[in-house]
Amino acid sequence: MHKLTIEKLNKTYGKVKALTDFSYIFTPGIYGILGANGAGKSTLFGLLTDTLHRQSGEILWDDKDILKLGRGFRKELGYMPQSQGYYPEMSAREFLFYIGELKGIPRKEVEGEVDRMLTLVGLKKIANRKLGQYSGGMRQRALLASAMLGSPSLLILDEPTAGVDPRERIRIRSIISEISQDRIVLLATHVVTDVECIANQVLLMKKGKLVLSGSPEELIVSMKGKVKEKLCTPEEIAVYQKQYGFGSLLQRQDGQVLRLVGDRLPENFTPVSDVGLEEVYLYYCTGKKKR
Q: Measured over all CA atoms, what is the biggest interatomic distance in the chain, rounded to whole angstroms?
């Protein structure tokens, strides 16, 4: 069983601390990494893939520094960056063959590997169509397939459902869940629904720091008494949000319900029993929790 160990990892850009003393031990499973834009998710991934220079701290793969492992570590790694380029004139099959060459997969193995990945992501029947003719969701699936070529033991996915419609989002989540067996999957996103049903553990990040981690169930339990709601008129919603900060709006049969998250909430609001990761995210990651 592989293990990825991060100890006191730091990264700054000028005076901005992008990552501060980040420490965590990952073993096989799906880890949802939640945080708003600028929380440090992409910086963490840049350090893990050695596309960014670390200033201090350790990144160990099976207790060995990834910089010393070099190519040995990169063979274990599959990476889907947030802004990944593709070649619109290439077909999906040509693109995966190209990525397979870059990864050093032996020629006698690459064809079977490409076919396996195309089947897994549901693109085999249209594999000869140019990527430029694909929908955004199809391209994301092709990019996910390229990250999975070579059966990496560590899969790093940065916003894999960015810009796709709800149906494609569900399909991509299903694929990630399916391929997570016996590997470490790190999935960074600010879309809570991407991780709430498939992640074994969730890491909450804010301003470069790891704020809290745990199973979805453990994080939801931590929210007891911190979520309330009330059926409100539009005028009341404006008043309450001005006083207590941003809340989520739910459309019910009898009107709009304002759901607030925080430590001190209005007495005339009703405590919520169906708390989800959305409220966990709002409380720990958005800076709206103290009222």
A: 69
Amino acid, res. 281:
Y
H helix or E strand, kind and range, residue 99: helix 92-103
Tally Cβ neighbours within 10 Å of residue 162. Answer: 16
Classify each residue of 243-263 as buried b or exposed e, where b means 16 or more C-beta atoms within 10 Å of its C-beta.
ebbebeeeeeeeeebbbbbbe
Taking only the tens place, the pLDDT of each residue in 162-214 is 888 888 889 999 999 998 888 999 999 888 988 988 999 999 999 999 999 99
What does the DSSP assignment read for 44-94? HHHHHTTSS--SEEEEEETTEEHHHHTHHHHTTEEEE-TT----TTSBHHH
Within 10 angstroms of residue 213's Cβ, the number of other Cβ atoms is: 16
Do the Cβ atoms of 128 and 82 come closer than 8 Å?
no
- 5 vs 9, 25, 63, 65, 191, CA distance in Å? 10, 4, 7, 9, 25
Sign of the CA dihedral running 107, 108, 111, 112: negative
pTM of the predicted structure, to 2 decimals: 0.91
Looking at residue 179, its amino acid is: I
Sequence letter at residue 117: M
- For residue 243, what are the CA distances in angstroms to 94, 159, 267? 56, 33, 14
Q: Which pairing describes strands 201-206 and 184-189: parallel, antiparallel, or unpaired?
A: unpaired
Q: Residue 290 pLDDT > 50, yes or no? A: no
The pLDDT confidence band at residue 56, using thresholds 50, 70 and 90, is very high
**Dist. CA 257–CA 247, nearest whole Å:** 10
By the 8 A CB rule, do 38 and 205 touch? no
Is residue 112 within a helix (H) or strand (E), and if so which, with residue range? helix 107-120
